[in-house]
Amino acid sequence: MRKTSWETLTTKYPALFSTTLLIVALLINLYLQPNMFARETLNSNMRVFLPLVLLAVGQAFVILGGGIDISVGGIVSIVNTILAVYVGLNGSIEKMWIYMIVSLFVGALCGAINGFFIAILRLQPIITTYATSFLYVGLALFILPNPGGGIPQSIAEFYRTTTPLGIPLAFYIIAILLVIWRYIRSTQFGSYLYAVGGKAEAAYETAVPVTWIHFSTYVISGLMSAMAGIAITMLSGSGNAEIGSPMTLSAITAVVIGGTALSGGVGGVTGPIMGALTLGIIQNIISFSHINTWWETFVKATIIVIALAAPGLINLFGRRKS
Amino acid sequence: MKRFYISPPVAALILAVVLFLLSGLLPNGFGKDIHVAFAQATNIVRLSVFLGVIAAGQTLVILSGYEGIDLSAGSIVTLTAILTYVTVNGRDDKVLSAFLISLIVGAIIGLLNGLGITFLKISPFVMTLGMSGVVTGLIIIINHGNVSGKVAPIMTRLIARPLTPKIPIPNAIIIWVIFGILMWLLLERTAFGKHIFAIGVNRITSRLSGVNVTAVNLAVYSLAGALAGFGGFLVVGNTGVVFIALGQPFLFPSIAAVAVGGTLLSGGKGSYWGTMAGAIVLTLITSLLTTMQIPDSIRRMVLGATLLVMISIYGRQRGFRQ
After folding, report:
1. At B47, is the secondary structure helix, strand, or coil?
2. Contact residues, A window 234-293, toward B, CB-based 8 Å cutoff
3. Would residue A282 count as lying in a domain?
4. Is the pLDDT assigned to residue A35 strictly greater than 90?
């Protein structure tokens, strides 16, 4: 009889653990907040989770390709300040569209800068994106030195309250992301991505365009960061150059909780989306369970560490038994 | 053809000297006054000590390879600084116990990191990131808004003041020089040091040649934690005040100092001399930008750009074609 250990299960279904985690978190949240699935509550939760989901998807591409991008928060900040300063509280819808497109270009450009240094000049990803994050946050502070500005109230309201067919807008966006991911996965680019993340040297030997795959993952990450920036600007309605910085590490945590290994080549985009949702729900649980404010950070961090340690613990004890 | 080659620590040091000499030409620089220049140089080296000691643990962890990194260093610094502050409470006789507490608390946190990384197979980046959150949570619980404590006079005497009034070199620098020699002895003249390099290059061959990879790895992370703890002790001895965000600003500069000093972020190659030079370069650039009274936004961009240039010079990984 073939032995089915937890390890083989998780290799076969990388999203198994993240799904379990998401369901457990959902159940706890449901217990604490019984009206969670009411349209209003669901929508108000999802619109808060969406920016991190977008960021985690971009990060997932980079990590799958064997890199890491810690400049994403900086890109979010740039986009936020661009929209807050150039659209303004009294801007028109057309202006908003123009600057949203500008933002996407800026995001892609920032990603291309990362990609240039990492893929073409072959610098180490962590330290390079750390350096560029200074450039990006600096630029955001240059555009908007003090928090202020914003986008028109009507546009922010549109993001906050749109629920086509009674389903929050965020679900449509996540569905579109998943469809696109399914398509990408089936293309040559998709298989190259896994090959490069698994072992770049071997991929190079077999004529995979390693440099361009690496480069493109950073551009994708830049684009997704710009989208996250647009989403968070619509959520907050105002500008703040420091808005993105705390999101970087959350995005990486979301990817890892989602079962995508930091060493690259294992995982996908579905897991990180669930990871981002799980992080959001954990935050929800903490605010609803009325923990002493002083303990909040500790409890949240401990839950995350336990979530990260759980697969390893299961493996460890599984091995002892057999 | 023999390529012209300067070792990274020397290159970083030359860069520091050139930058320092150029800074003399600034409007509010030291000009032609040799005494002012000397005082300024000493001051910059004194400020580098703290970054340098914190980056020592980072050097060990990065040398041990396999994506080794310690993102909990910043929060360990804050924690041990607060513990020192509270334990000492202005009394000279408590300094030794505070010092030991700092080392032990740091080592325990480091050991937990090491256990998670070696036994639960969590990637170092995520494990130490999670631990950083837990420690920050602990700090908030201990701190409860504000702590009452005081630095003992003997700490200020031993860290911030010069040994004798005749030689205007602060003790911190002397401590750092001795510390540097000890680190060199540890890395180059002990079996443990050789083992760190060995497991950084290849863990399988190290294990086959009789290195206890697990034990070395655990020891490296514990030692890194203890060194960060020592860093916290020094920092509070110098500043005399504690606050929640005390250590975090040291975290990424400590990684950058290692990278600028020519230690490969992929492990197995590097030195503590390089990290010392890297710490001086980074502190110099930061303080230059501060004294030039440039707005924060431009300061960050210049820092990011300088980092990019420095790692572009010698941080490049091997190309695929070679």
Report:
1. helix
2. 249, 252-253, 256, 261-263
3. yes
4. no
